[in-house]
Specification:
The chain is of the alpha+beta class. The chain contains six helices and 17 strands. 19% of the residues are buried.
Length: 360
C-alpha cells in the first residue's frame, strides 16, 4: 500500500512538471505599442532630440532674475498671460529702500533750497538793514565831528574853557566814528555783493551729489518691481507671495536648487525647436542651405515640418537635455534651431520632441 502511494505521488509530480514546463515555455504575445514610433522620413536622415522653445532671434527663453533680495509681496500676473513691455509682473518688499529713497530726496531738496538761497542774495530785507546801519554810522560821525568842532572853538577862545583831556576824547570819538563808518560801509558792500561765488559753487555741488544719490536710490527702488522686458507670454512663475528671492532667483522645493524667478517667451504664434545633434553625427549634416527637418511629437502620430533658422556653432555637453550636472561620459551635441508655426496641438515650451534632419 505504501509503495502504491509513493508511485501515485511520483506520477502526479511528473505530470505537474511537464505541464509547468509547457506553460513557461510559451512565448507571451507582445503588447501592441501605444503609438507608432517616429519613422525616419529621409533616406539618410539624422535623428536628434529636440526641445521646444519660444521663437526668439537670440538665446532661449527669457529668464528673469531679481536684482534685489527680499520677500515677494504681490504677484500681478498669471502663468500663460500675455504681457507688454514694462508691465509689472510682481513686487518685492521695498519698505526699507523706499524710506532710504525718501530720506535722500528730502536731503537733496534741502540742499537745493540752500543753493537757491545763496543765488538769491542779497536779500532785500538784509540790504535795507545794512543801508540803515550806514546812515546811522554817518550820522554818528557827523555828530562826533560837530562835537569836536565845538570843543575845538571853545578851546581856541579860552584854553581854560575845555580841558585838553576832553578835547582828546572828542578827537578819539571822531576817529572811532569814522572807523566804524568804514567798517559798516564795507559790510554793506559785502551784503550788496551777495553770496561768495565759492559758497554758491559748493552748495551747487552738494545739491548735485545728494540729487545723484537720490536718483540712484530711486533707481534701486524701481528694481523691487519686476517688469516685463519685452512683449510676450509668462511661461512660468517659480515662487509665491511671501517667498524669499535673491539675485540667484527662486528656490525650487522639488529640485532643491535655484532657478529664474520668471520665465517668459515671445508671443506664441510661432515656436522654435532646439535640436541637438550628437557630435559623432555632425559631419553627416548637409550644408546649411539644404537642411530640412520634421518634428515628431512623442506619444502621438503627429509630425510637423520645420524651417531651418540657424546653427549655434558651439558644441556643448548634453546636460542641456538631461539637466544632469555630472555625466559619466562627456557626450557633446551641436544645437540646430528650427522654427515652425504653432499647430492646433497642445505644444508647450520645454517639451521634448523627436527630430529628423535631412537634405533637400
Amino acid at each position: 500500500m505504501r509503495n502504491k502511494v509513493i508511485f501515485i505521488a511520483s506520477a502526479l509530480g511528473f505530470v505537474l512538471a511537464v505541464v509547468s514546463a509547457y506553460i513557461f515555455s510559451q512565448t507571451p504575445k507582445p503588447q501592441p505599442p501605444l503609438f507608432t514610433p517616429a519613422a525616419n522620413p529621409y533616406p539618410h536622415g539624422i535623428y536628434c532630440n529636440g526641445i521646444i522653445e519660444s521663437d526668439q532671434a537670440q538665446g532661449q527663453n527669457i529668464n528673469i532674475y531679481p536684482e534685489v533680495p527680499g520677500p515677494i509681496t504681490q504677484i500681478l500676473v498669471a502663468e500663460g498671460q500675455a504681457v507688454h513691455r514694462g508691465d509689472a509682473l510682481l513686487t518685492i518688499d521695498d519698505s526699507v529702500q523706499r524710506a532710504t529713497a525718501e530720506q535722500q530726496q528730502a536731503q537733496a531738496e534741502a540742499a537745493h533750497a540752500m543753493w537757491r538761497e545763496l543765488k538769491a542774495q542779497p536779500r532785500r530785507e538784509s540790504l535795507d538793514i545794512s543801508t540803515a546801519q550806514v546812515q546811522n554810522a554817518r550820522a554818528a560821525l557827523k555828530n562826533a565831528r560837530d562835537q569836536l568842532a565845538k570843543q575845538q572853538r571853545a578851546y581856541d577862545m579860552d584854553t581854560r574853557a575845555i580841558s585838553a583831556d576832553a578835547l582828546d576824547n572828542a578827537r578819539n570819538a571822531e576817529n572811532i566814528a569814522a572807523t566804524n563808518l568804514k567798517v559798516i560801509e564795507r559790510q554793506y558792500a559785502l551784503t550788496k555783493a551777495g553770496a561768495w561765488i565759492y559758497d554758491i559753487q559748493n552748495a551747487e555741488k552738494n545739491y548735485v551729489a545728494l540729487d545723484k544719490a537720490y536718483q540712484s536710490s530711486a533707481a534701486l527702488l524701481a528694481k523691487y518691481t519686476i517688469r516685463a522686458p519685452t512683449d510676450g507670454v509668462v511661461l512660468a512663475l517659480r515662487s509665491s507671495v511671501g517667498s524669499y528671492v535673491s539675485s540667484q532667483g527662486a528656490y525650487d522645493t522639488y529640485t532643491q536648487g535655484f532657478g529664474p524667478l520668471v520665465v517668459m517667451g515671445l508671443p506664441q504664434q510661432h515656436l522654435q525647436v532646439r535640436a541637438y545633434v550628437d557630435e559623432i553625427l555632425v559631419h553627416e549634416l548637409p550644408p546649411a542651405g539644404k537642411i530640412q527637418a520634421e518634428m515628431f511629437i512623442r506619444g502621438t502620430k503627429q509630425h510637423v515640418p520645420l524651417t531651418f533658422v540657424r546653427i549655434q556653432p558651439y558644441v556643448s555637453p548634453k546636460i542641456e537635455l538631461s539637466d544632469e550636472r555630472e555625466e559619466r561620459v562627456d557626450l557633446r551635441v551641436l544645437p540646430l534651431i528650427f522654427r515652425f508655426e504653432k499647430p492646433q496641438l497642445s505644444l508647450y515650451p520645454g517639451q521634448l520632441v523627436d527630430v529628423y534632419v535631412g537634405a533637400r
